């Protein structure tokens, strides 16, 4: 079984171009909270093997770095996970690059919601609501439509309650 964590970036300020939008102070707090949560819940084996990949957009890169810091990990950039990219190349990448390696993918809506929906439900119209900095933990033997199980869903909002 392979584990995939799909995360939406933290809250971002408005602006243009979209690719240069930065996290707000609240968005930074959300990302730090999720990094602390992951450092608590990940086993040592998963933490040491975890691969963190992020969209090239500024807010996703900032989120990924803040999450990676308490884990002592680095961040890779994956150009095919910007907001409106098609899912098929992402699923192909998962099949080739993440067959047995745990991975945290940091991206944007609508891509993250659609990816969770497709992997879990298999329907091209399925989508999971993903508030800022939320994480969906999926498990699968193969990364394909309808083949994953949603094991956990965590929002930074739920950590403070």
From TrEMBL:
According to UniProt, the name of this protein is: Phosphohistidine phosphatase, SixA
Query: Which InterPro entries does this UniProt record tie to the protein?
Result: His_Pase_superF_clade-1, His_PPase_superfam, Mito_Ser/Thr_phosphatase, SixA
One Pfam family matching this protein: His_Phos_1
Molecular function as annotated in GO: protein histidine phosphatase activity
Q: Where is this region: Disordered?
A: 11-30
Extract the PANTHER family matched here.
PHOSPHOGLYCERATE MUTASE-RELATED, SERINE_THREONINE-PROTEIN PHOSPHATASE PGAM5, MITOCHONDRIAL
Q: A cellular component term (GO) from this record?
A: cytoplasm
Basic and acidic residues: compositionally biased ranges: 18-30
Query: Keyword set for this entry?
Result: Hydrolase
